[in-house]
Amino acid sequence: MSALPECQMLQIERSGPRLDMTFNRPDQRNAINRQMAAEIAAVVEWLEGSDDVRLVVLRGAGGHFCAGGDIKERKAEAETAAAGEDPIMERNRRAGLSFRRFEHLPQTTIALVEGSAFGGGLGYACLADITILTRGARLGMPETTLGVAPAQIAPYVVKRVGLTRARQLALTAERFDGAAAYEYGIGQYLCDDADAEATLERVVAAVMRCGPRANAATKDIMLRVGTMAEEEQIRFAAERFAELNRGDEGREGQTAFAEKRKPRWETDYTG
Q1: Consecutive sets of 10 residues in the chain, 271 residues long: mean pLDDT of each?
Q2: Do residues 119 and 231 share a domain?
């Protein structure tokens, strides 16, 4: 297996089947600049080809999750673009593709949202399979106050909270705390700031009880809902179920159940 990409704007730490990916521009509240975006894309590409990593934890350094895109850098790119070029459109398109690839990773993804989570940061909070919100977190879509649209995160916010709530949040640019975000459905866990680490480890332990291939297949089935005809969805799900049932993981899980013991994938994890 290839080595993990070298990163500066991301802090990457691997512990067996777990990968912690930390936005690492704390002096800028972890705003995503061009380099960080490229590093995220490289790590996501690496994860797509990894059978050894089962879980990805996404968080931010310095007490903040992610303040969104680097507005100053984006403005400078637009002002210095050569005639006929549209770097802002291309940058936004790449961001959308990166969001989609992150959402469809075979690994289970957990976002721990502390401090600021605006714009793209809110997007990643909505992209993760499981999102933990601290009460002190501050979230929102401020793009419309800057005269632009939350173009690439909007679909994921809609999928997460529904169209009516998403329109209200985007068209008022409301800022809200972790408790409100939990009420809106952005996260599945809410905790006090001081309990963030303990809550994260409890959720990680719960995920590690599940078969990694079973989780990957379950994500794949769920993310296809609404993208294919019902009969096609039924056949696709049945094929994945049969594949898992015949495979090593399915046989081990069912044998472990019959023998009243933990399956190997759970006992092998020492996190």
Answers
A1: 90 96 97 96 96 96 95 79 78 94 98 98 98 98 95 97 98 98 98 98 97 96 95 96 96 95 84 52
A2: no
